[in-house]
Amino acid sequence: MTEPLFAITDRPISVEDVMKKVMRPEAGAVAVFAGTVREWTNGKRTLFLQYEAYVSMAEKMLAQVGAEIVEKWPGAKTAITHRIGKLEIGDIAVVIAVSSPHRAEAYEANRYAIERIKQIVPIWKKEQWEDGSAWVGDQLETTAYPSGKPEVKEG
Amino acid sequence: MIRLLFFAHLGEQVGEREVTWLHVPETVKKLKDEVEERYGVSLGRVMTAVNEEYACDEAPLHEGDTVAFIPPVSGG
């Protein structure tokens, strides 16, 4: 059975399962990142989150992130699983595992992966605040755009 | 005929996640103009994917394409 390295799921994510996908004899390091649902953002309380994805394309774009990593850090191997649906505080939204012969590349590549997810992978987060809800619309997770007319922010 | 997909706030504004568009405009830009006019939405900051590949405004459209409107993403 071959588990896909890049997946969108509506089930809870097992950190260990994602990590196991990249473990191999050539690797001396595995960097694992878990993105979790935060309760407080600038003094505002989140009750829960709703994630939505363009699933087929999102899985392809996650694979592209993995391909970019191999290009930049030859020898690195990446697995990413992102969860969609309703997530409660503390739930894991995304797990990124990168293995490589040495730790420096694993750390760097893992950081690169989360930044690229926030740029190119079609996944959206809807915040259910204590006092309302809004789609979160930029990579810094600070600007909501309930009107659909967000301010343009230069990256 | 092309298939349009709307995500996140766009799906809520349009009231549909998926729409069949009978007319096939020549380019993404022309489709965006038609969609903005039809639904009163702004696609200014919205990215477009044609058949699951990001496409620029000048990209041509063809019968049977699937066009997705992708607001700024916020995964992670």
TrEMBL record, chain A:
**Family annotation (Gene3D superfamilies):** Molybdopterin biosynthesis MoaE subunit
**Pfam families from the UniProt entry:** MoaE
> What is an example of a GO molecular function annotated in this UniProt entry?
molybdopterin synthase activity
A Gene Ontology biological process annotation?
Mo-molybdopterin cofactor biosynthetic process
Record-linked SUPFAM superfamilies: Molybdopterin synthase subunit MoaE
What keywords is this UniProt entry annotated with? Molybdenum cofactor biosynthesis, Transferase
- Enzyme Commission code: 2.8.1.12
Known catalytic reactions: 2 [molybdopterin-synthase sulfur-carrier protein]-C-terminal-Gly-aminoethanethioate + cyclic pyranopterin phosphate + H2O = molybdopterin + 2 [molybdopterin-synthase sulfur-carrier protein]-C-terminal Gly-Gly + 2 H(+)
Is the keyword Transferase assigned to this protein? yes
- The family this protein is said to belong to: Belongs to the MoaE family.
**SUBUNIT field:** Heterotetramer of 2 MoaD subunits and 2 MoaE subunits. Also stable as homodimer. The enzyme changes between these two forms during catalysis.
- What is the protein name stated in its UniProt record? Molybdopterin synthase catalytic subunit
TrEMBL record, chain B:
Q: Does the keyword Nucleotide-binding apply?
A: yes
| Keyword list, A-Z | Nucleotide-binding
Q: Name one GO biological process term.
A: Mo-molybdopterin cofactor biosynthetic process
Note the superkingdom of the native organism. Answer: Bacteria
> What's a single GO MF annotation on this record?
nucleotide binding
Q: Which Pfam families match?
A: ThiS
Nucleotide-binding as UniProt keyword: yes
Q: Name one GO cellular component term.
A: molybdopterin adenylyltransferase complex
Q: What family is this protein classified in? A: Belongs to the MoaD family.
Instruction: Fetch the PANTHER family from UniProt.
Output: MOLYBDOPTERIN SYNTHASE SULFUR CARRIER SUBUNIT
Q: Which NCBIfam families match?
A: moaD
Under which name does UniProt file this protein? Molybdopterin synthase sulfur carrier subunit
Q: What taxonomic lineage is listed for the species of origin?
A: Bacteria, Bacillati, Bacillota, Bacilli, Bacillales
